[in-house]
Amino acid sequence: MNLAHLLLRRARLAPDARAIALGKHAVVSYGQLADRAARLAGGYKSKLKLQPGDRVALAMKNCPEYYEVLFACWHAGLVAVPMNAKLHAKEFAYILENSGAKACFVTPDLESAIPTGTAIREIGKLRGEPMPPAEVKPDDAAWLFYTSGTTGVPKGAVLTHRNLLFQTHAYFADIDKVAANDAVLHPAPLSHGSGCYALPHFAAGAVNVIPESGHFEPEEIFELLDHWHGASFFAAPTMVVRLLASPAARSPRHLKTLVYGGAPMYVADSLRAIELFGQRLYQLYGQGEAPMTITGLPQELHQPALLDKLSSCGFARTGCEVKIFDDAERELPEGEIGEIVTRSDCIMAGYWKNPEATKKALRGGWLHTGDVGSMDAAGFLTIRDRSKDMIISGGSNIYPREIEEVLLTHPAIAECSVVGRPHAEWGEEVVAFVVARKKIPTDELDQLCLDNIARFKRPREYRFVEALPKNNYGKILKTELRKLLAPLTP
User: Fold this and answer.
1) Helix axis angle, 65-75 relative to 30-46, nearest 10°?
2) Of 259, 311, 380, 463, which has the fewest Cβ atoms less than 10 A away?
3) Are 53 and 25 in contact (CB under 8 A)?
4) Whether the predicted model's global pTM rises above the 0.85 cut
5) pLDDT at 123 > cutoff 90
């Protein structure tokens, strides 16, 4: 069950096949990568004195060496702790301390943030005699996936070899049949979703392409999609919006599948994406605690005529159960709104050294996502909001996403986010933060809302801002928006 065998199998079958490319040029074959990972694993043991189960952190921007470090961890029976390269030095320090990492590999741009890390230029010196892959159990930890921490310190979701292998199989079952001559681009951080989706492509013998910039640049992505045949990639919705707005935007020559997720995609943006990319979009809903694998909306349902489907996040992935529970842990009937729960072999083992949070999240054998949604008779799930983002005004529940969807139909609105503000009489009232392309009269926005949603859901104030605060993964920080709002009396 060791994930290292995904690489080793392909290395035996096709040692000269391209494993990693930097930009438009292949730089490492499968045979070379497997040999380097085995030798680095040997160095972990002989030179760093690491033992099975020890944690190894990766403070690395996207680069070809990322996979050598990652596969070497699994080859040696260690636990990888990938960290987003955009984190603050204090955030790196917290994760390193919390995980108890015995080693940390660092790319040159982050050496000042991790003064005690091992620079990746030292990897060659660390390689030792190749060792055989360690024997691990399916439920042994493979990856500590630290949450983004938008409401406090991040928690480390313990992902096992079983979890990540299940996610790999689910990719093949639901998203794509990957061929050995296909490619996958990695513009999103390898520490999160893009890194997870490297695994099915390594398993199939595809080439993993690192943009030369090491991050997301729309023009570069369009160029790579014109170069690499059978190209797929994962993107957050904010990245998709940037692609659509880029002067370089065009229908890519070789795009196979664009998988998007990590946050809801507004219907208006979905329609624009379909117009440019066609039926090559796959929407996923997942969490760090259930990596990339809860529900999905397949390519064939990305059609302008299917607005009810586009406003959903699809149906349960292969091997996953998904339900809607009320506060008493009872399943709700179709159409009713409650908390989204799921269970499968993709669900984390728990939170690292946090039994209280683990007990709360995994109670009753289900992962409680903290997301609020409803399910129709066919099993299509619609996410309303995070439970903490729901607004209660005058005793009525108001879901910000419903209002945001309406506002985004206005051609002059680039982005928006709706939050609740404390109100002495109503409990909360609705406030919309708006990023506008040009000046918009507020009565025009009021009328747009009144034409589409109930009057009590209409924002009581529109705040026009230059930009919305976001975390390192592109998610809007509603906690920061709420801080800008002072309570008002009626």
Assistant:
1) 60
2) 463
3) no
4) no
5) yes
